[in-house]
Automatic annotation (TrEMBL):
Disordered: annotated segments: 245-267
Signal peptide: none
Organism ancestry: Eukaryota, Metazoa, Chordata, Craniata, Vertebrata
Cross-referenced PANTHER family: CLR5 DOMAIN-CONTAINING PROTEIN, EXPRESSED PROTEIN
Family matches, as InterPro entries: Integrase_dom_put (IPR058913)
Pfam families referenced in this protein's UniProt entry, alphabetically: rva_4
Annotated Integrase core domain residues: 77-251
Superkingdom in the source lineage: Eukaryota
Protein name (record): Integrase core domain-containing protein
């Protein structure tokens, strides 16, 4: 008990302060909180963070320990071979729509934006083109759902990465949103780490008669909360891209490293997770050459 008291005095309050920077910090598990501490310059042990959270938030620890998800097998050839994009609709009844895209191999967040709509194909197409311009390349494949909001992305992708008749894989794939595995899993992660707070807050406003779903109420929430939610999305994606991905039991081919690193630590993986395989705009190549710098060691 004396050891834990020392930990609590020297490090616990710093961890608690980091947890309460945002109201949704109460949803974080000890691994995610450890990553946030490292991002904020706090040099703490993961075990110390676990003990502090267990003492400060026993109810949250118990709720996170209940139940485990049995995942399907997933495989992607390399970084930027496939991007998964989708919209998150849990806040849509309150006038806030979230759209995101994730790289299938490295699990790096390509974009994550909140706006008043996610049904405008010009808006989603703009997200895609901004990412292509920022990263100076496009993926081999984009996976989206069957909605009309992805019409511009489909056209842009098929124009930038043309395919031949003998190609068995189209440059744009579409299907049911629930089968878009990478991004659907990440939406669950996003809800656990920050969106659950906002969903509960807005639901309380509605249940107490303070939100009727009208134009004025939606605009008030957008004016007051849109910037805060976008800040949390940026913070979540930043910490996600900096955290170390744990080994997957379902796939030995998936890397164990940080999504945003340009050079993989030798102890973690020999695969580089930075965006090094690219299709230049207008290229019709189906298999780009693998540059020598893409491997370390």
């Amino acid at each position: 008990m004396g050891r834990f008291s020392s930990i609590h005095r020297t490090r616990g309050y710093k961890v608690f302060e980091c947890a309460t920077n945002y109201a949704s910090g109460q949803l974080h598990g000890y691994r995610w909180m450890y990553a946030k501490c490292r991002e904020n310059g706090l040099r703490v042990r993961k075990e110390d963070v676990r003990l502090v959270l267990k003492e400060l938030d026993p109810r949250g620890v118990s709720s996170r320990q209940a139940g485990r998800l049995r995942r399907r097998r997933y495989f992607s050839r390399r970084p930027n071979f496939i991007w998964h994009l989708d919209s998150y609709h849990k806040l849509k009844p309150y006038g806030i729509c979230i759209n995101g895209c994730i790289d299938g191999f490295s699990r790096k967040i390509v974009w994550l934006n909140a706006y008043t709509t996610s049904s405008d194909p010009k808006l989603i197409g703009g997200y895609y083109m901004e990412a292509v311009q920022r990263l100076k390349g496009c993926p081999r494949v984009v996976r989206g759902d069957l909605g009309t909001e992805n019409g511009y992305v489909r056209g842009f992708q098929r124009f930038l990465v043309s395919t031949h008749q003998e190609d068995t894989l189209d440059s744009y794939l579409e299907g049911a949103s629930t089968a878009n595995q990478r991004i659907e899993y990440w939406w669950g992660f996003l809800r656990r780490q920050c969106m659950e707070f906002w969903i509960s807050l807005f639901a309380d406003l509605r249940d107490n008669g303070l939100f009727d779903g009208g134009f004025l109420d939606k605009n008030l929430l957008q004016f007051c909360c849109m910037g805060l939610i976008q800040d949390e999305l940026d913070d979540t994606s930043q910490v996600w891209d900096a955290h170390t991905i744990r080994p997957s039991r379902n796939s030995r081919e998936q890397p164990v490293a940080r999504p945003a690193t340009e050079e993989s630590p030798a102890k973690e993986t020999k695969l580089v997770l930075s965006m090094v395989w690219w299709f230049p705009c207008g290229s019709s190549k189906t298999e780009p050459e693998c540059p020598e710098k893409s491997f370390s060691g």
